[in-house]
Amino acid sequence: MVNLNSVNLNRLVTFVAVVEAGSLTAAAERLGLAKSMVSKHMQLLEAEIGVALLVRSTRKLSLTEAGRAFYASSRQLLQSAEHAIEQARTGLDSPQGTLRVAAPIDYGAMVVAPVLAQLRTRYPALHIELVCADHVIDLIAEGIDVTVRLGKLADSGHMASRVGPLKRWLVATPDFIARHGMPGHPDALEALPFIALSVLPQPRVFTLHDGAGQTREIRMRNTVFSTNTAYASRAAALAGAGVLRATTFLTQEDVAAGRLVRLLPAWSQAATDIHAVYPASPHVPHKVRVFIDALKAATLQSA
Q: How far is CA 39 from the centre of its chain?
């Protein structure tokens, strides 16, 4: 079997140009090289493969029998390479293949799935697989192209791109507010019935800031409902069970529709970050880049 490391395949381009141009001079003009360089490439190619390819004379240049067969094979090889490059460039303009995305369950369903559906409409050659899970997924082991992670990132060897801020609001239903009153200050929150999302590190403790530099640490003392999923906490809030501290992507449509009311809008909670994480590589796949760009656009629009 031939050791390709011993042959400079770039010389095939020169050889094919010489055959098709009919002379070293014409091939040199076609390639933008000096005639002496073209001649040297031919000499080296013949030495590398150990076969005479060209018959040189004062009048013309012709192919040996081995040269004719080698030209046919070389031309076919270059055509295949051109086709491969064209396919790769087509992928740069229109991503294709399968895009495997992982995301937390609530964020994946409410934000990532619509973004991916729109991406699929825009790029029909792209196939989508969305894996929703609240545990940290191993990208390499599970063949994931990109995963979305909320909050502080753990150290890893992967690349990360910030998608946008992750914000939280305090919300309750209009009926709940009618029964318990609208709190006018953070200090009035702590005694209100509270819905806790138990998977948070400190589900009942958070800090509020106002525009004047004041800070309040809130400790909700009256937890009446606790659950481990954001969907269930939202359902409990919509049923009027209590005050809910939840992400804006989970509650902003309810607030816009009047089903929930934002409490203390002059006070905010420090935002954390949303990141897209993907395996480190010198070249980020185009399908990953278009997904991250689309997710950033959707996050900016809803901010």
A: 48
Q: Over the range 271-301, which residues count as b (16 or more CB within 10 Å of their CB) and which as e?
A: eeebbbbbbeeeebbbbbbbbbebbbebbee
Count of structural domains, the chain: 3
Confidence of residue 237 (pLDDT cuts 50, 70, 90): very high
Write down the pLDDT at residue 153. 81
Beta pairing partners, 125 = none
For the whole model, what pTM was predicted?
0.65
Q: Hey, what amino acid is at 97? A: G
Alpha-carbon span 282 to 67, nearest angstrom:
39
Q: Are 8 and 78 found together in one domain?
A: yes
**149 with 279, same domain?**
yes
Angle at 22 between CA 79 and CA 59, to 5 degrees: 160
Of 93, 119, 149, the last residue of a domain is 93
Q: What is the pLDDT of residue 90?
A: 58
- For residues 156 and 22, state if they share a domain: no
39 lies in some domain? yes
Residues 6 or more apart whose CB falls under 8 angstroms from that of 105 comprise 132, 133, 134, 229, 230, 231
Mark which of 73, 93, 113 sits at the end of a domain: 93
- In this structure, the answer to whether residues 53 and 173 fall within a common structural domain is no
Q: Do the domain assignments include residue 267?
A: no
- Domain assignment present for 268: no
Domain ranges, residue 57: 4-93
- Please report where in the chains the tokens 């399968």 appear, as a residue: 98
Give CA–CA dist 110/90, Å, rounded.
Answer: 31
Query: Does the pLDDT of residue 131 top 80, yes or no?
Result: yes
